[in-house]
Amino acid sequence: MKVKLILPALTAATSPFWRSIKYSLFPPLGLATLAGYLDEDDEVTMQDEHVERLNLDDEPDLVGIQVYITSARRAYQIADHYRRRGVHVALGGVHVTSLPEEAKHHADTIFLGPGEDTWPQFLRDFRSGRPGAVYRSAVRTLVDQPPVRRDLIKRHLYLLPNSIAVSRGCPHRCDFCYNEPFFRGGRSFYTQQVDQALSEIERLPGRHLYFLDDHLFGARRFALDLFDGMKGMGRLWQAAGTVQSVLAPGLLEAAVESGLRSLFVGFETLDPSNLEDQHKFHNMHRDYAAAVRRLHDLGVMINASFVFGMDGDDDGVFGRTVEWAISHGIETATFHILTPYPGTALHTRLEAQGRITTEDWDLYDTRHAVFRPAGMSAEQLEAGYWRAYRDFYSWGSIFRSASAKGSLTDRLRHIAYAGGWKKCEPLWDLVIRAKRVCSFLPALEAVLAGLGREREQPAPRHGGSGRRIGAAASPAEQIGGVR
Ligand code: B12
Ligand code: SF4
Fold first, then answer.
1. 384 vs 27, 305, 363, 391, 425, CA distance in Å?
2. Which of 110, 175, 178, 386 most suits a substitution to test ligand 1, by most atoms within 8 Å of the C-beta?
């Protein structure tokens, strides 16, 4: 059987004038995961429009497309094209799960929720000539997951080809997060077994890893066993976690010992009333400054996530947030405009209040105000968002923020990291066009490693010992985790 898997891109990612490094970071891990369920004699191709031009001239037996909100328009275009050719089209992913009624007009089969249970079932039905129209995930486990088809990933086109996800979902329920609607109807947070995760890591060449898990620290026992197994592998890795997990005793130290060097942290807002409104309870009454100190003291750089436009925000929020981040020596920040993804509690609330102003999904990219904010105008919100980026990433701010670091090496590392992301965009544009992105990974590794400070780190060890066999977290611990 001939199968084609496609990750369509939003318009901004395919601009002939400008290529942002953001879209050449991660390979399509979800599709490579689904490809693992195909038979050995199936002929499979995987195309990612963020990094390559799609070939739409073929006629496979089956096309599977992953749909995000901002790429929905393009995904439907591609789906319609293949259906006109008589090809069976399957659509899945976050946006299809949020809006199945919309997606089903462009598909022969749609998938709601994660695909590990429904996709193999569909493949059996498809092969026997009886494919269903809707598959809804209900059985949530990663235990018998076949290996991710990494051979389909064109590694040289990505800066971070060693992306990996060892869990799904999150133990928390923030109102603005896609997780609640996506995982509805089954468990919303579960992990691989530790051995499984370690084997996947050992299959990855080189030193660097990027965990795409929403909350790698969400199941404490699992996380500790994973970090223990990774000790001595010589890896350098990046991931995402909560303020609460950073402050939890022991967890961060174990992560750092196994190679954690930079963490994406969801601070979201400095205003406690905003946290309460969004039901982000696990951030409440936490000492953000202590979390930052703890990370920096252990040599971990921070990518701080902030969301603007919550009801407690006025026009002063941008300046206050940027100043806080700079004065605390935050290396990189990701700012978002609050975005009510369909299906989320936030969307339900704003819709009931009549505050949603557009359903043009292209604008749901966290850079546009798609609702009426309470404490300022939509124009102020968008202008403030761009100002925050400009102010945070000015050279003056980068130097000021770096000066919060104790040692010269840490200051240089800060400047190299922040400058590399945001001040070298023309260089990234050239490198992307030359299809040489991956050759910059050693530079990133050098910065993560502290510019020579960690020269004595052992070389990566593949298939070695030192892992704890059978150290899977119990289901209760997986769900309980750090709250
Ligand atoms: C990596 C990532 C990116 C990367 C690249 C995406 C990629 N290569 O896949 C980059 C940086 C480019 C990116 C960009 C953006 N992203 Co993004 N990203 C992610 C992230 C962190 C991980 C994705 C991942 O690999 N997950 C792990 C794999 C295993 O899971 P999966 O991809 O979901 O696939 C599973 C299921 O979805 C399902 N499935 C998926 N497709 C299909 C298809 C079929 C046929 C079937 C059967 C099943 C199926 O089966 C898979 C296995 O279970 C997610 C958050 C998350 N943890 O998922 C956000 C996330 C997907 N991004 C999001 C957003 C909003 C964006 C941006 C708009 C942000 C911005 N401001 O620019 C852009 C635009 C993206 C676009 N092209 O339109 C949202 C999507 C919300 C939505 N409703 O669509 C998410 C969910 C995060 C969030 N904020 O809530 N992103
Ligand atoms: S902690 Fe993060 S990933 Fe978890 S529900 Fe909240 S926003 Fe989503």
1. 32, 16, 17, 10, 22
2. 178
What does the pLDDT read at residue 17? 67
Average pLDDT over residues 192-201: 97
Burial 215-229 (b: 16+ CB within 10 A, else e): bbbbbbbbbbbbbbb
In this predicted structure, the answer to whether residue 369 has a pLDDT above a threshold of 70 is yes
Which 3 state secondary structure label does DSSP give 338? coil
Please say whether the beta carbons of 51 and 24 come within 8 A: yes
Q: Kindly give the distance from the C-alpha atom of residue 258 to the centroid of ligand 2, in angstroms, as a whole number.
A: 24
> Would you say 149 and 77 are in contact if contact means Cβ atoms under 8 Å apart?
no
Closest C-alpha to 125, from 137, 135, 138: 135
Q: Which residues is 308 bridged to in the sheet?
A: 337
> How far, in Å, CA of 346 to CA of 453, rounded?
45
Q: Is the CB of 194 under 6 A from ligand 2?
A: no
Q: How confident is the model at residue 452 (pLDDT cuts 50, 70, 90)?
A: low
Q: Are 442 and 153 in contact (CB under 8 A)?
A: no
Question: Domain locations in the chain?
Answer: 2-136, 159-448
Domain 159-448, classified CATH 3.80.30.20, yes or no: yes
- What CATH superfamily classification does 2-136 receive? Cobalamin-binding domain (3.40.50.280)
Residue 468 has pLDDT above 60, yes or no: no
